[in-house]
Amino acid sequence: MPKETPMMQQYKKIKEEYQDAILLFRLGDFYEMFMEDAEIAAEILEIVLTSREVGKGKRVSMCGIPYHSAAGYIARLIEKGFKVAVCEQVEDPKKAKGLVKREVVKVITPGTVTDWQMLDEKTNNYLMGIAVAGGDYGLAVSDLSTGDFLVTQFPKIGLNLLVDEIHHWQPREIILPEGEEELRENISESARRCGSLVTDRPDREFQPGTVRERLCMHFNVTSLEGFGCQNLDAAAAAAGAVLAYFQETQKAQLKHITALRTYHLGDYMHLDFFTRRNLELIRTMRENKTTGSLLWVLDATVTAMGGRLLKKWLEQPLRRLDEIEERLEKVAAFYSAHGLREETRILLKKTCDLQRILSRLSCGTVNPRELLALGETLSLLPKLKDLLTGSGAPVLAEQAGKIDSLPDLCQLLLSAIREDTPAGLKEGNIFRRGYHPELDKLLSAAKEGKAWIAGLEQRERERTGIKSLKVGYNQVFGYYIEVTKPNLSLVPEDYIQRQTLVNGERFVTPELKEYEELVLGAEERRIALEYELFQDLRHRVLNELPRLHQTAALLAELDVLAALAETAVKNDYCRPALNQERRISIIGGRHPVVEKVIPPGEFVANDTLIDGEKHRLQIITGPNMAGKSTYMRQVALIVLMAQIGSFVPAEKADIGLVDRIFTRVGAADDLTGGQSTFMVEMNELSNILHHATRDSLLILDEIGRGTSTYDGLSIAWAALEYLWDPEKIGARTLFATHYHELINLEQHLPGVENLNVAVAREEGKIIFLRKIMPGGSDESYGIEVARLAGLPADLLERASEILKDLEEKGLKGPAKRTTGKKPTLLQLPLFSSGEEQELVRELLALNLDEITPRRALELLYQWQARLKRIKKEA
Question: What's the pTM value of the predicted model, to 2 decimals?
């Protein structure tokens, strides 16, 4: 077998340690990939696949990307779910003896990205760790690009809670202990929906003793008590594994991860996957875009930090009244002071993304321009503090008092770094004159040498009389004097020949070599010194990380508060009042998204009154497209907005806090899961019935529509009774349906109330009035809606005939067509026996406007008994 080249031997040795990653192997100005890695990358990156000889007669597949533009290529590999190991030359090729030493300096995975070019500035990039200890799940989530690090723990029986948390955090990557096949199986569907890469990690990284030692060492503490997870073994295991993964992939100390926050699921309103999807909080259901979502309406933030925080608030509405009121008070302060709000937003817009700069600083990848941006941001803080302190709003003055402007660090950065500093380190020119004496000397020497060399050409032309003489430079020969052949006779004796060309010769002089050494030596020493000085500056900034993190968090919060106030002013929102009495009263409520996508002034506002007693369960009837779903969702969104501390789209709102919002709005087949529309609907309903409490808010639309009429009606009826029963759930519920039989529940169950969406008829057509009115509807106007959809006229005419006969004959149906020449269509009667038809005739003969509720109930019991006897005898 041919012996492989030393380079390929080196490559294979490194690749053995990173078999699950695509290895980018640095060769000169390119990152090269070989064999299977090259074949995968060439297809994904759409680059040419070539080959390279690695021994006598042996070739392997190969492709490469330029190192200076690698970020875009790496981003595409990460987007496809691959890991990338970056292997660099770790010694100067000029000083290397034999093969240049190479090492992997970073492993980039979907959950460990820090490069801005690979990240959405207003979206967190979370890694999630899941551990199992005893009877509990432990969950840790962290964004390496910002330093966020949170943990929680809950009983293992709460698998649905684990699934909901995955959908809440939307992690790019999830790490699990290897061998936990059951856990992997349980989360596989959620990971698929979120586009999360699932990575197995060694069990030892989840061991209680190991993880506690790792966490305590990282945070420089003796116990985890200060973080609230001292006795949470599963949570600590997950957190320790996440930290180990970061350390392994980044090859850095991660000083920007300065704290670990323990949160409890009870701290926030719980939103399951279906509710997040149905309410379109972050993205729309149909197109999966931000445009058209609640976030799209509310996001008036002017910083990336604020944008990320707003998204967190939307996905974690508060449940504690005092915390909500504190947010509302701050929003109100910005709402009522236009000048203050505008000036604050102007200042915030000039700030940089502190959180992600601090992350890159900690990982050793920060560049000079980013440190300059950090200094410029700090320079804005005194003015921001003065503005808020003098606002007259105590809550904002208190917020301003917490902002640490770090004046010494600000002065250091602005006095150190040039305004025109480059992004990279290799070319130098980072620091201002006066920052470091030795650097100033080198800069002066290089400048003087360059000036002397720059004037050399003119001086030599005058001395020699050679008008075409040129002074040039290349990396091989350095500086030289070039003379064409016709002028060689005029060359002075002190010229020393260096190179012969086709058209002339190149020379040097002793004085030129002396200045060359001065210039090049000074340049080399300057670049090396600037690199050392930059590393020193980086470490000095690192010492202030905790203070910088606190300031970054405060700036993000100010941005969100001012943005919510800006949105409230522009969209005419009101400040909600909050109560703990289960009473939701909304006057002139509007859907925040729908009103933005239809022409101004066309949205019809509606009132809402739901409470725990007389108005606990509301049955809403009316035609499709009339606005039932819009109305119900707007109630849910108004409640959610109030509990994140936002003003709401209404004239007035009094919101009783809810612990969870559940929605079941529409359904579709889950083909990949092998479930029909009806099964999907039943799964969603089951989840609601098992987890809703009396303090929840339920939004249910068309329960039971995916099966036969009587099956569906029975399920809807029973579900309503179950939800109504205070001993089972008793939750506040909005229930839209086309089963008009359900409106009778109002007469038998206290707290059930009928509402309907008003429509009007005009010249045989219906007009949707979009107004919610008291009382139930006995029509769905299905044929009229079908006409609006453009169904053929003869089909609609036939449908009207069938409907008329069904209404008149008690669902027996028409025997034949009354128009057209097509064959007769038969309809099987619902009630076939004579006694059953007699029951129908009795029902049709009733005067419903005069019968008492008691008599109606007696007749129902009698008819039910007769039907049971008939069926039994049959």
Answer: 0.83
